[in-house]
Amino acid sequence: xxxxxxxxxxxxxxxxxxxxxxxxxxxxxxxxxxxxxxxxxxxxxxxxxxxxxxxxxxxxxxxxxxxxxxxxxxxxxxxxxxxxxxxxxxxxxxxxxxxxxxxxxxxxxxxxxxxxxxxxxxxxxxxxxxxxxxxxxxxxxxxxxxxxxxxxxxxxxxxxxxx
Length: 163
Hints:
Blueprint: H1 15-32, H2 41-61, H3 74-91, H4 96-108, H5 110-130, H6 141-151, H7 157-162
Helix pairs in contact: 1-2, 1-5, 1-6, 2-3, 2-4, 2-5, 3-5, 4-5
């Protein structure tokens, strides 16, 4: 997230922002591990919003806030994305400065939405295939950190602890 004035990174503040941040972490790893097309900026941003919509819905249904989105089981996210992605996108609280533009583009284009949805499903499935057992976003912290370092992005101290 940026502070809106200087563009400097700041920790997420809302459950939606935590969901977007977690979605982006999942996508960064997916792109770094054989799916470079998922890292292309416009697809990455659109896919992050679709995936964040599923994470946010899980958090709302599970009565989890803020950093607790990291408790989302990836199998549940995959099911939400396969079965309800359009509804989740329509209902997500994406403000203009955090996914709102991408959300509007996706809702205006069936082709862009379907591409982002398929990429989100593939991202979650890739994480599931790379791990064993019931896997949550938090269980992927180790790979998030490695992908972030390789991508040359700095993790905020607060964010590193949350994910």
